[in-house]
Design a protein that fits this description.
With 251 residues, the chain is α/β, with parallel strands linked by helices. It starts with 11 loop residues before the first strand and ends in a 24-residue tail after the last strand. The protein contains 6 helices and 12 strands. Helices cover 24% and strands 20% of the residues. A 7-stranded parallel β-sheet has the order 1-4-5-6-7-8-10. It has a 3-stranded mixed β-sheet with strand order 9-11-12.
């Protein structure tokens, strides 16, 4: 929840607060709800994390600087950075971000309409160490959320097309630097992912100048009408994929 991450596109996950409410179909099988209930906690109650967790990026920044590297930090993996319940704490989180120039904070939200009004006063053209992103599970949500992302300044803008629940027909990645592509992980409740959706998303990225990162094919991957024999329940083993979608680029 706060140390080195198993997510292929980041180094750490940081949760300055925890808890969320579902806002669109992509949330239906969210792992945070499952894990919170396993710990006997209410996943819909948003709570500020204790100081050791809230301030953990300060240590990661020191370690990255001493090692001469830049680490990526997926921000609010168990929450939404722009949730209304966190309004009182967000300035403190931005302060941590400012103190950590050797980290890149990957801030991902489904609350697209709140981004513009909840950036810090000194945001300007965007903090150099913040990638700002939205989630979009299909064309409908892409066309709702991505225009809001395009409308705000940021040094790097990205979209998480995960869990992909439908094709991105008619969508554009213009102005978007990076697109994460992924099917839904989990057990029997995981919804199918058609590899043709990844084909379409990759073609869109190549047309519009975005970097495609295929994270996983999900637990139920379909290619050409047939289920792929994947051993990893997240479909994250690249050697099991069709070669055409083995792409993991960064902006």
């Amino acid at each position: 929840m706060g140390e080195n991450s198993g997510i292929q596109w980041t180094t750490h996950t940081w949760n300055p607060w925890q808890g969320c409410q579902k806002v669109s179909p992509g949330c239906d099988n969210c792992y945070m709800f499952r894990d919170k209930r396993r710990y006997g906690q209410d996943p819909e109650t948003v709570v500020r994390s204790k100081p050791p967790t809230f301030n953990k990026p300060l240590r990661w920044n020191r370690e990255a600087r001493e090692a001469g590297r830049v680490d990526r930090v997926f921000t609010a993996s168990w929450a939404d950075f722009f949730s209304r319940e966190a309004d009182a704490w967000r300035d403190d989180a931005w302060a941590v971000v400012r103190e950590c120039p050797d980290l890149v904070f990957q801030v991902l939200t489904k609350r697209h309409a709140r981004i513009a009004d909840h950036l810090p006063a000194d945001w300007g053209d965007g903090y150099p160490n913040v990638w700002l992103g939205v989630s979009a599970e299909d064309a409908e949500w892409w066309n709702r959320r991505v225009p809001c992302l395009r409308a705000v300044p940021a040094r790097t803008k990205f979209v998480s097309y995960e869990p992909a629940l439908g094709p991105l027909t008619g969508c554009s990645a213009e102005g978007i630097d990076w697109v994460i592509i992924g099917g839904e992980s989990g057990g029997a409740e995981a919804r199918p992912f058609d590899v043709a959706w990844a084909d379409g998303a990759i073609a869109m990225c190549q047309r519009d100048g975005s970097a495609p990162f295929v994270k996983q094919l999900g637990a139920v991957a379909i290619d050409g009408g047939r289920a792929l024999p994947l051993h990893d329940q997240a479909g994250g083993e690249m050697e099991e994929w069709p070669e055409r979608v083995r792409l993991r680029a960064f902006p």
